[in-house]
Design brief:
Elements lengths: L5 E4 L8 H17 L5 H7 L5 H12 L3 H18 L9 H11 L2 E6 L3 H11 L7 E4 L11 H10 L6 E5 L2 H10 L2 E4 L17 E2 L3 H9 L3
Length: 221
C-alpha cells in the first residue's frame, strides 16, 4: 500500500453489532414457525455473514421449507430486524476510527450483503451517515460476498484504488471477498463470528485495537 486512500467497512457485525440481533430473531422465528430449535453453531457455519439466497437454501435443505414459506419467513425476519436495529450497539472502536479518518481526509464506504435501506437507516441512527461517502450492496452486483464485487464497487464509487484501501470485516464470507478484492483486510470478529473457522483467509490483522492499527497503517509503521 502506497498511501491509505480509503477504509471500506462491512455493516452488520462490523459497524453495528447486528449479528446477535439476526441470530436471536432467526432463532425465535424458527421455533415459532417450525417448532424446532435453530442450532447456534449450525447457524454460524451456514448462515451468518452470508445473504438471503444462502439462507433460503439452508432453510430448504435443513428444514424442508418451501420457497413460498421462506418468502413469508424472510418478510417477517426483515420486519423484526428492522424494528430492532436501533437497539444494536456500535462495535468497539468504530466511532473513534470514523472520526479519525474524517479528520485526516481518508474516504469511507460500506460494502455489504445487506439491503441499502437498512444500512442507511442504521448509519443515520448511529450518527455515521456524515462519514460514509459510498454504499455498495448485493443489490447492485452480480455476485455477493464471498465474491469481491461489492468491495470493488465501493472503491469505484469512492474513486480510489482498492489496493490502497483497508477493508474491515467480521465474518468468513465477507473476509474472503475483501481479501480477494486486493484490500488490506482487518478481521474484527464479534460474539457470533468469533466461532467461525477462518482457516485459509488472508488477513493482515485480527481482533486488534482498531484505531491504533489504522493509525499505524497511516503512519507506515
Amino acid at each position: 500500500m502506497k498511501k491509505l486512500e480509503a477504509v471500506i467497512f462491512d455493516f452488520d457485525g462490523t459497524i453495528v453489532d447486528t449479528e446477535k440481533v439476526y441470530y436471536e430473531n432467526m432463532r425465535d422465528l424458527t421455533e415459532e414457525v417450525l417448532g424446532t430449535k435453530l442450532d447456534k453453531m449450525d447457524y454460524i457455519e451456514n448462515v451468518s455473514g452470508t445473504n438471503e439466497e444462502t439462507s433460503r437454501r439452508y432453510y430448504n435443505k435443513r428444514f424442508g421449507m418451501s420457497d413460498k414459506d421462506y418468502d413469508k419467513f424472510e418478510e417477517e425476519i426483515t420486519r423484526r430486524i428492522f424494528e430492532n436495529y436501533h437497539s444494536a450497539p456500535v462495535l468497539p472502536g468504530i466511532a473513534e476510527v470514523m472520526e479519525y479518518l474524517h479528520e485526516i481526509g481518508v474516504k469511507m464506504a460500506v460494502a455489504s450483503n445487506g439491503k441499502e435501506e437498512h444500512i442507511r437507516t442504521g448509519l443515520k441512527r448511529k450518527g455515521f451517515e456524515k462519514y460514509i461517502g459510498a454504499i455498495a450492496t448485493k443489490e447492485e452486483v452480480e455476485n455477493p460476498k464471498p465474491a469481491s464485487d461489492v468491495y470493488l464497487l465501493a472503491a469505484n464509487k469512492l474513486g480510489v484504488n482498492i489496493e490502497n484501501s483497508i477493508a474491515i470485516e467480521d465474518s468468513k464470507p465477507g473476509a474472503i471477498g475483501a481479501s480477494k478484492s486486493g484490500a488490506t483486510l482487518i478481521l474484527q470478529t464479534n460474539d457470533i463470528t468469533k466461532y467461525m473457522d477462518f482457516t485459509g483467509v488472508q488477513y493482515a490483522y485480527k481482533d486488534v485495537d482498531l484505531l491504533e492499527t489504522i493509525k499505524d497503517v497511516v503512519e507506515n509503521k
